[in-house]
Structures are given as C-alpha cells and as structure tokens.
Amino acid sequence: MREPCMDLAEVKKQIMELKGRDIEMAVNHGRKKITHYQGVIEDIYNSVFVVRLQNNAKTEKMSCSFSDVLCGDVKIATKK
C-alpha cells in the first residue's frame, strides 16, 4: 500500500520556507548511486529551485525541480 503523498503546492511551500537556510540534500542518480550535498537554497522559480553548494575550492550551483522532490529523487533536510 502506498503512503499518502504531498502535492506539488505543499512541496513548493516547504522549500520556500527553507530558502536561505543551510540544508543537506541526497540526490538519487539511479542504480544505487546517491550523492550527498550541503548548501543553501538561493533562488526559487516556478518549477525549479537553485542550491548554492558549499565547497571549499569554488562556488557551484545546482538546480532541482519540485517534481524531483515530490517523487523522492531529491531529499532535503535542514542542517543541524
């Protein structure tokens, strides 16, 4: 039995609340390849959001769609 899911509007609302805060992300690239990132949500657009990754050498940015979060390919948690 499937768990009840959030809808896209709830995902957008939760990500908007995290804007500017330190987060940890786990991105599923398929075939058991999961990459972990730390960063800050910098910009939010209609269908995507941009995360500035914290890296010692250089500043990198990564964009993710809200649907990736909704389907579970991207998981976001606040940094403690």
Could you please describe the fold and organization of this structure?
By secondary structure, the protein is an alpha+beta fold. It has two helices and five strands; from the N terminus they run H-E-E-E-E-H-E. It has a single domain (8-78), classed as SH3 type barrels. The protein has a five-stranded antiparallel β-sheet. The radius of gyration is 13 Å and the shape is globular.
Q: Pick out the low-confidence regions.
A: none
Largest sheet geometry: 5 strands, antiparallel
Strand order of the largest sheet: 4-3-2-1-5
Number of strands: 5
N-to-C SSE string, H for helix and E for strand: HEEEEHE
Quickly count the helices.
2
Shape: globular
CATH topology, by name, is SH3 type barrels
Compute the gyration radius: what is it?
13 Å
The CATH class assignment is Mainly Beta
At CATH level 2, the architecture is Roll
Structural class: alpha+beta
Helix content bin: 10-25%
Mean pLDDT: 88
